[in-house]
Amino acid sequence: MAKDRKPDDARPSGGATRSGGGNPHRARPTGKSGRTRPPTQVVANAHKRPWALIAGAVAVVVFAAAVITYAVVQVNEANADKLASIEEISGVEAAEYSPGQDHVTTEVDYTETPPVGGPHDGNWADCTGTVYDVDIRHENAVHSLEHGAVWITYDPEALSDADVDTLADLVDGESGRMLSPYAGLGTPISLQAWNHSLTVDSASDERIEQFADFMTYQRSPYGDGDDRNALAFPEPGASCENPAFAAAPLVEGEVSTPIGPSDMPTEDQG
């Protein structure tokens, strides 16, 4: 049996209303001007600063300043390191071997240890940034000096592996340089170029790099007028490449063996 419905007059008149409603025609409160107050968020957005753009601009300025500063420092250091003469490097010893030294196949009793000039083998030791782990034959090494190379030698008993690595980093892949141990050197490290030598006690000595940079292929000219190249190596433009020697270097004390290119005159050349 269906329940009796409430009489129609029990329903509220005027239509349904939402909870908390009221008179829909009630007037809204107004301020002094009678206008409503704008939302706070709208005002905040109107005055918001572009912080991302500002930060980006500052970063660009800082980076540019750092680049300019670095460039200036590098230029200043390069200018400070320039040498007008090899004699500006403390401790450099000089000899006076003239160009045109004899090519020989016999062992040479050199005046200097290690040698910096004089008669030498017709085959040169490879000096294309070559790091040797043997005491290469001195007569072949001197021929490399004639071609403009710098020969760095060290006493294997006096240097640590780290010290040898430091020297190797200065030589490896740098055309016109070679590195080898040298038995009985009498000093931890010695550098040789044609007619010049320098001995140092430490692989961190800044004179090593100064000597190598100045004397490799005589990169920094010195002298004035007619004497400008008076102390230059005898054979500018001569090759340092001898891959056969690099692959199987002759060791000090071994008999001269033709290996790779040679400047020795042939019978046809007289």
Q: What key phrases describe this protein's structure?
A:
single chain; about 270 residues; alpha/beta; Glutaredoxin; six-stranded mixed sheet; 6 helices; about 25% helix; elongated; disordered C terminus; DUF3105 domain-containing protein
Q: What is this structure, in a nutshell?
A:
With 270 residues, this protein is α/β, with parallel strands linked by helices. It has six helices and six strands.
3D structure, described in words:
The chain has 270 residues and is α/β, with parallel strands linked by helices. The chain has a domain at 111-221 and 233-251: Glutaredoxin (3-Layer(aba) Sandwich). It contains six helices and six strands; from the N terminus they run ααββαβαβββαα. The longest helix has 31 residues, at 51-81. It has helices at 40-46, 51-81, 138-146, 161-171, 206-215, 243-247, and strands spanning 93-94, 128-131, 150-154, 177-181, 189-193, 196-200. The model is unreliable at 1-27, 29-33, 71-80 and 265-270 (pLDDT under 50). Strands 1-6-5-3-4-2 form a six-stranded mixed β-sheet. The termini are far apart.
Query: What fraction of the residues are assigned to beta strands by DSSP?
Result: 5-15%
SSE order: HHEEHEHEEEHH
Whole-Å distance between the termini?
143 Å
Structural class by helix and strand composition: alpha/beta
